[in-house]
Design goal:
It contains 16 helices and 16 strands. It is α+β, with helices and mostly antiparallel strands. The chain has one domain. The chain is globular and about 65 Å long.
């Protein structure tokens, strides 16, 4: 009963605006467009030379061509390029780590079938299938399946130093509140960074500590039973998992158990609400569900997931991405494990960089200066042109400047989480970001991390 009450308490968070809540894979269709670069037919011309986006964005960037009667984007190496956002030391900057975790619902009546599905998900065949489709495998043994092209290299390099949001029990509440977007928008609008940081530290600290912890966790499953013939449901969020991988899971599960695996696709926008209402209910819960790495701590801390500590070594152990393992653990026990990793890196227009006389930067200072220079030179004379397109509410990309300068969003000490926006290193990163908002980006202050690739193509339709 305590676990159900704790989950029900999440409904307050779930009912709030959830724009983009979840992992980096949760980007949705763009709703913000540059005010004067959009034409009457909703087509927007090239509006930026640089964006930061999840690696799979390259499928949406390139020349517009016809394939099988459809308009598609085809990458053109002569025009487009990629590189990791550089840090102050010349190594890749610690960008926000994208990706998801996955776990078994504690309320699932099909624990044995769910555990068999987890074994399939962490198998070599499935992990390599994810890698082949551009998703970072959870197990380091299979990272080579990503390939050796420029996208794989940028993904691996940028992920090597990536960071997660705080593993606080109330982090999903922080995201759902909309206050992060509000804070970053005020920074973008030129507000006093130190004063804003102090104001929002006072808002975030109680939210970070707003959820109960291990006292509500269920007892470990000691006898999951027999998986034979069990029909189970898997929730996947968004379209990141390719059809090829979904089909493989269904067929492999049927062959292993004789049961049916039903995959239901959910959306990032309302997943917190749906998990909050469904996970406590044995009649409606998914047996296994993907969950954003930023949301995992909130649900693991209220006992929403089954204890799978006994499967940890079998599913990969120390070869699993440990930062993702950490956000799925409570008091040394494992409840969710990494499903796949993604990372954000820079996509840029080689032609615009060359015309502006700018080379690919090797440090964060060089990057900050380069995108301002490109904006000022605007070699193609484009209205509302951005050397670097970064929305004012885009905290998921903006926090990279905080991390790169040694700052953080929150710290845990003496049994409590504390918001650290006022930390001097965090302030330094925010001030750099504010300069970019002022001098390099013409993106609206209301724009989030939604489909920035639409602004780097020569033309695109914004719906």
């Amino acid at each position: 009963m305590k676990r159900i009450v704790a989950l029900a308490a999440l409904a307050t968070a779930g009912a709030l605006a959830l724009a983009g809540c979840g992992n980096s894979g949760g980007d949705t269709a763009a709703t913000d467009t540059p005010s004067s670069s959009a034409t009457s037919d909703n087509t927007t011309s090239l509006a930026t030379a640089t964006i930061i986006a999840p690696g799979w964005a390259h499928w949406s960037i390139g020349d517009l061509v016809q394939k099988d009667g459809k308009d598609v984007r085809e990458w053109n190496d002569a025009t487009f390029g990629v590189y990791p956002l550089p840090g102050n030391d010349g190594k890749p900057a610690p960008v926000f780590a994208g990706g998801s975790n996955i776990g078994i619902s504690a309320a699932s009546p099909n624990q044995a079938g769910a555990r068999e599905l987890m074994r399939l998900i962490f198998s070599a065949d499935y992990q390599q299938l994810l890698g082949k489709n551009g998703l970072g495998p959870a197990n380091s043994d299979y990272v080579s399946s990503l390939g050796t092209d420029e996208f794989a290299k940028a993904l691996i390099d940028s992920a090597s130093n990536s960071k997660l949001t705080p593993a606080a029990p109330g982090w999903a509440t922080v995201e759902a509140s909309g206050k992060l977007e509000e804070f970053f928008s005020k920074v973008a609008d030129g507000g006093d960074v130190a004063a804003l940081a102090a104001e929002y530290d006072a808002v975030f600290t109680p939210l970070l500590n707003g959820k109960t912890s291990s006292g509500n966790l269920p007892d470990p499953v000691t006898d999951p039973g027999d998986a034979s013939g069990q029909n189970i449901t898997l929730w996947l969020i968004g379209a990141d998992t390719p059809d090829e991988a979904r089909t493989w899971l269904k067929e492999a599960y049927a062959a292993k158990t004789g049961g049916t695996l039903t995959i239901e696709e959910q959306t990032w926008g309302d997943i917190v609400t749906k998990l909050t209402t469904s996970l406590p209910d044995a009649n409606n819960t998914p047996d296994v569900t993907e969950i954003g790495n930023t949301q995992s701590p909130t649900f693991t801390n209220v006992g929403a997931f089954a204890d799978i500590t006994d499967m940890y070594e079998e599913l990969g152990g120390s070869k699993l991405l440990q930062s993702f393992v950490d956000v799925g653990a409570v008091d040394g026990k494992n409840y969710t494990l990494p499903y796949y990793f993604g990372s954000r890196y820079i996509f840029y227009r080689k032609d615009i960089y060359a015309a502006a006389g700018v080379s690919v930067p090797t440090t964060l200072t060089e990057f900050n200066e380069a995108v301002v220079t490109i904006t000022e030179k605007n070699p193609n004379g484009i209205d509302d042109f951005s050397g670097f397109f970064l929305g004012g509410q885009d905290w998921r990309n903006g926090i990279s400047w905080i991390f790169a300068n040694g700052g953080d969003l929150a710290k845990f000490a003496n049994g409590e989480w504390t918001s650290t926006l006022s930390d001097p290193n965090t302030i330094k990163g925010l001030e750099q970001l504010q300069t970019l908002f002022e001098k390099a980006s013409k993106a609206p202050n209301t724009a989030k991390d939604e489909s920035p690739w639409l602004y780097i193509n020569d033309s695109d339709v914004i719906s």
